[in-house]
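Async update (no meeting this week)

Hi team, since we skipped the sync, here's where things stand on the single-chain job. The sequence we agreed to prioritize is pasted below, unchanged from the tracker. I ran it this morning and attached the output directly underneath so nobody has to dig for it. Comments welcome in thread, and please keep replies under the output.
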Amino acid sequence: MTKKVLITGVSSGIGQAQAKMFLEKGYKVYGIDRSASPHLAGDFHFLQLELTEDLATVYQLVPHVDILCNTAGLLDAYKPLLEVTDQEVENIFAVNVFSIIRLTRHYLSKMVTEQSGIIINMCSIASFLAGGGGLAYTASKHALAGFTKQLALDYSRFGIQVFGIAPGAVKTAMTKADFEEGGMAEWVAQETPIGRWTEPEEIAELTAFLASGKMASMQGEIIKIDGGWSLK
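Output:
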């Protein structure tokens, strides 16, 4: 039976690379994004939606998934606490934490019934370190890391695997501003031990490994893929 995958943030960057990878491997892929549908070949189904809205239409379109990739995320403006508003913090947490909890809760219940499922959350090096974003982003990604670990601890006995992926600097629409004139792209590359930004396809390859089900004893890990940034 063809496995079903649900990916958020599918219209660009890491989410699009993940979708393309799963489609090439013959999976049935469902994608959600607030932007327009990407052009992808294969058994692909798309829903344009803000993750902070009512998710009932998602559940109708996709009653069950074998693999859930919570990839969508929102970057802040690198503001410290005294410069960021409560509303800005709430907006970041609404996307980076609360929407993931809601979506996961729904599909987790079905995974528990079937005693099978894989959940992959897109964490960040900001889940471990300061400086990868501002106060709101860093706090939200730390929260997502805690959610990932606790979820794995609570539900591993039901045959469910939970992982986090923690990228460093990745070339995506979210980091587009860094490549504009006056941006940080060159500095980031110079400061990264491998001397470059990570490509979305590299994150997709790691996703494929985690989604393979071959590492049955691997549970709750948040795997860094940051070009060596966190080694410093």
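Quick observations from my side:
The chain has a mean pLDDT of 95.
The beta strands are 4-8, 28-33, 44-48, 67-70, 117-122, 160-167, 222-225.
Reply here if anything looks off.
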